Amino acid sequence: MKNTIIEYFVDLVKIDSESKNEKEIAIKLAKDLENLGAKIKFDKANKQTSGNIGNLYAYFSGNIDKAPLLFNAHMDTVTPGNRVKPQISDKKITSDGNTILGSDDKSGIAQIIYAIKDLKDKNEDHAPIEVLFTISEEIGLLGAKNVNYAWLNSNFGFAMDAHNVGEITIGAPAQNSIKFIIHGLEAHAGVAPQEGINAIKIAAEAIAKMPMGKIDDETTSNVGIIEGGKATNIVPNKVVIKAEARSHNSEKLKEITDEMTNILTEQTHKYKVKDFTASVDIEIEKEYDSFHLEPEDKIVKLSKKASDNCNLKFSAQIAGGGSDANIFNANGLPMVIAGTGMNKVHTVNEFMKIEDLQSGRDWIREIIKEYSKNS
Ligand SMILES: [Zn+2]
Predict the structure, then answer these.
(1) What is the rounded distance in angstroms from the CA atom of residue 272 to the CA atom of residue 249?
(2) 121 is catalytic
(3) Given phi > 0 = left and psi -120 to 50 = alpha, else beta, which region is 63?
(4) Cα–ligand 1 centroid distance for 354 (angstroms)
(5) Is-above-0.85 flag for pTM?
(6) Which of 39, 66, 217, 241 is the S-S candidate for 180 at Cβ 3.0 to 4.6 Å?
(7) Domain 5-172+290-373 is of which CATH architecture?
(8) Hey, what CATH topology would domain 174-288 get?
């Protein structure tokens, strides 16, 4: 293994690992974890995701008799994530501007591995540690959704997958994805438009009536994609609308989802030509549940203590998005999302400060030490 976390991180970002193509990086990480003394195994989550390898699980037995502590990061990246050419200055690491960097989430991976390496190098006693590197987080948390939860014995854990080092996220909303397919009636737009039902017009009217954006402090909704029509001289008979709704409150999520679907259904059914009535197919998919941890929870206190030890600024926030942590929490395993220092993720301007790469590693090391100390 490389001497410094910087060299190691640079090696990781050079490995192509867009979602479903995590095999190469996973094999390398498995080898490195084994070299540090872990027992490793892969699950078969990729059978559900059509990826080329499963989630990677590693167990460090430790020499303090306690339940293990879990650290998670995801191995996949968004696109354009292949052939990353890292540019290293004395302060930060970027891509060459043609791709993302992949600090989301390889900064988390490198920090977890080098925190453990530090403990091993210094022969420090520590509690057992579980590491779970997931696949296909970026395409719907598919790895986490297919984890074999019976493998995990930790009482709580850390998803290293957020912005500021030292800060954690203790709550995130639930999300529904909603797909509407409006069926109108095709007709010649110049010769006999009265014989058709314009699906684009229905869509426009319904969307205009829908509540959208920030609904309240804990609820949002959005129409993000609309597709339909073939030519200007055809009354279009089909429109597909893709929307989403999020809320920290499950009742409000249901309410906003119902409101959006009711508006579309009502608007569609107003249109009839002879014995044909316009219709709409609605598909609602729950992407993930919300989660909320309390400031008094052990894991929150542990994060803060370790942050203080490292002179990092601590905060416990509520997020607007979902991550693997939503899935872990829904499966009864409390997880916070912890910052690694990643910046401008999912863009070609993504960057990672060298200082953050190191302080994130130190923070994790301190979390493990504090956890190992206290009962
Ligand atoms: Zn991520």
Answers:
(1) 38
(2) no
(3) alpha
(4) 18
(5) yes
(6) 241
(7) 3-Layer(aba) Sandwich (3.40)
(8) Alpha-Beta Plaits (3.30.70)
